[in-house]
Every structure is written in structure tokens, then in C-alpha cells.
Amino acid sequence: MSGLWPLNTYGDTYEVVLNHAPPYRIIDEQAGIKTYTGFYVDFVRELARRRNLDLKFHEVPFRRALALMENGSADIMTGPNRTPERESFMVYLDVELTREGKAFYVSPEAADITRYEELESMYIGVLRGAKYFKRFDEDKKLRKYAVGNYSTALRMVSKGRIDVAVMPELLGDYINKTNAFDLRKAAFKVPGQPSFIAVSKKSKLAQSIQELVIWN
Fold first, then answer.
1. pLDDT value at residue 211
2. Contacts of 39 (CB under 8 A, 6+ apart)
3. pLDDT at 10
4. How many CB atoms lie within 10 A of CB 90?
5. Helix/strand/coil (H, E, C) string of the chain?
6. Are the C-beta atoms of 55 and 14 separated by less than 8 Å?
7. CA–CA separation, 64 vs 61, rounded Å?
8. Helical packing angle, 150-158 and 169-178, nearest 10°
9. What span, in angstroms and rounded, lies between the C-alpha atoms of 207 and 71?
């Protein structure tokens, strides 16, 4: 894969890959300088401070973050759900961060969605590489339109290019409000799966993963 930075280019600096997903991962850019904040960012920074680790943050699309973790070009990823596929190349810290529910956003004029089966007639915006819930992820009948970020998905709903977009609820509410899309949340929602901090199995950190979660 081209354009990847080498693992630990800066000696003992560990590479953290993340996408913009408020309020958990907030990336702001002013005069060409990016700042990284949010709950997940604060958590991993505190972990690094207590373990005397140097971190460098990189903004990448969600699916690319997974690829970088898999090939060892990144060390840490903030907030992924746990799946058997991801556990083949990442080690998860035994600290659950959140269980945010998944919400479905539709245009104000659209009919409400009250049950799963109604999704079968719709074009659904999803984040490329993301997992939502088992039935949805494995359903081959659904027409899913993968995009690089959730703002694009909501914009497509607002312009009538797709029928609905699914995403973590707090994130969807934030994007909907800050971009004035004025979309409506459907009545149908799905409980969330736990999110974690994960370490690439090819990272030096993987050798001392248990030590990372000892907070005293």
C-alpha cells in the first residue's frame, strides 16, 4: 500500500490513527495545524501519559485506519468495535469505552422507519469499513451505499440521493446539527456495541498490552 508511514518512524513515538467523529474524536484544523480532542483522544492521551508513551496522531478514513493497523503501519486505533476479523490483527484493551446506539436518519418528508424489515426497500448510507450489528452487517439483501465519512452520508440523505443513513446516535446528532441538514431520526434504533482502544498486533505495544490498562 503506497503512502504509508513506517512503524515508529520517530523512535519510541507511537502512531494513533483516527477519523473525525465528534464527540469522541474531534479533529479541528486552523492555519494548516490539526488539533485532536474528544473523549477517546483524551482517554488514550491519559493512558500514554501514565505509561510515558509519546503519541503522534494521524487523521485517516475509518477503513484506511483498519488497513494501517493490519499491516503494522499504525500502533493504536481509538473506538473500534470488537469483531473476530479485527481480532486477527488487533489486540483490544479490556476497558469498555461506550455502547452508543445506532440511529437511522431520514429526510423530514420521509415515512418513519419503525422496524428492520422496512430497510429492505431503501438505499442506506453506511461508513466504509464500519460494523453496526450482526443482522445488518450480514444482510446481503440490503442496498448499502458506502461512503468515506458520515457527513457525506447525511448530505446525501438531505439531497435525496439515498433514503437513510445509519450511524452512532451522538455523532449523527452532532453532524446533523452543525451542518443544518435538518434530518429526522427514525423511531427504529439499535442498541450499541462496546467500543475499545485497540493496538496493532505488529506494534511493540502489543507485547505489553496488559500493562497499558494498569492505572495506578
1. 62
2. 23, 24, 97, 98
3. 44
4. 24
5. CCCCCCCCCCCCEEEEEECCECCCEEEEEECCEEEEECHHHHHHHHHHHHCCCEEEEEECCHHHHHHHHHHCCCCEEEEEECCHHHHCCEEECCCCCCCCCEEEEECCCCCCCCCHHHHHHCEEEEECCCCCCHHHHHCCCCEEEEECCHHHHHHHHHCCCCCEEEEEHHHHHHHHHHCCCCCEEEEEEECCCCEEEEEECCCHHHHHHHHHHCCC
6. yes
7. 5
8. 60
9. 16
Counting every residue, how long is the chain?
216
β-pairing, 195-200 with 76-81?
Answer: antiparallel
Q: Say which residue the cell 445509519 belongs to.
A: 166
User: Residue 97 in contact with residue 196, Cβ under 8 Å?
Assistant: yes
Task: Indicate the residue type of 124.
Answer: I
- The list of the chain residues with pLDDT below 70 reads 1-11, 210-216
- Grid coordinates representing 84 are 473476530
Q: Which domains does the chain have, with CATH numbers?
A: 13-97+194-213 (3.40.190.10), 102-190 (3.40.190.10)
Cell of 29: 484544523
Q: What is the pTM of this model?
A: 0.79
List the grid coordinates of 102. Answer: 445506532
